């Protein structure tokens, strides 16, 4: 039975016009409907009296202003606290609030999807993260919590500023995770899995704040697993391959930019494993060894560890190999993934191949010379990213290295900035990474403008090592 207080006090027409509804009593037609000779009705649905409940994220924001707890926005019911701790076998060091935060954030596709090629990879990635946490909670809990605390929670503004308390807590957790990485020992395949999960989580945190120390972390992780990895004849499980490809790709990118050597040689999946598509590098797994070879040749040219003629010959052979490279496409590729994901993966293979050829070009010809070929490759990369974004309806993932290589050829500073911010998939997650990229590219262009000495690709390591621009241009 409907209470009298729930009856509409205005007719439907007055309510829609947001005007006062005047009538002699609740039975007669109102003055407006009578004057216009319209039927006066009150047929809109009844609503419960009282104030509507506020959205969850607003409730959390209000609680946060008046509380000093770790995460006042998290509402943990008593019947869930014990369940979460039991599910993940979390030791007492991880608070109930933190355990629930890890669960809620990793269960949120919008967070995980920032780092993967598409939603189809989210469940497998989430399962891998949770299984590793259950297997080695004491090792991974600090790294996981550091990542969760360093980003806005689900429902919060992605570009919002974190409180000092949140930042302090995330840094303390990250420091604890790094301490565990320094003392970690890897003796078997199970240790390899845990080490890769730890390294990948720390990298996620470091990327959030610009990625400056990425190379040191990658080198440490890959150095720890190298003895077992190189002696392990069987291929790693797909869950571990995802973390491995991520760390290897990150290290290879930094080695190319800093003129350093990779820690280990990546072994792509065997040819018979044609159905495997990596959640980070997609179909580019067989291209990674060629990118690592570029690192070795760049290092050799900068440090003159080989005769120049010998290195140039190897560069030409590698160029032929990369030009002939084609990804291994699974038989049911287009049926297994969404149109957006297929577009992203195919775009990634094309722009990464072009980026490798562009680097080869700049190892043979200094910046500012042989411009027609260089600009053609750079503009093709940028155009491919633009088309993929239009077709897929979202920014392509895992293509930032190719984007940076192309932007090094763009002379206009504003255009470079626009391209980095619009085409990068991690621009929202890590504005500091974009700022770091802009600073790096601007420093290269500043050195080029001095025109004192030709600058090849293998000289870029001096920029990342904060060498004075005048010194770089006087090589």
TrEMBL record:
Keywords: Nucleus. One of its GO terms (molecular function) is DNA-binding transcription factor activity, RNA polymerase II-specific. Residues 44-69 are annotated as: Disordered. Residues 10-40 form the Zn(2)-C6 fungal-type domain. The keyword Nucleus applies. Pfam families: Fungal_trans_2 (PF11951). PROSITE patterns: ZN2_CY6_FUNGAL_1. InterPro entries: Fun_TF, Zn2-C6_fun-type_DNA-bd_sf, Zn2Cys6_DnaBD. This is Amidase. It comes from Pochonia chlamydosporia 170.
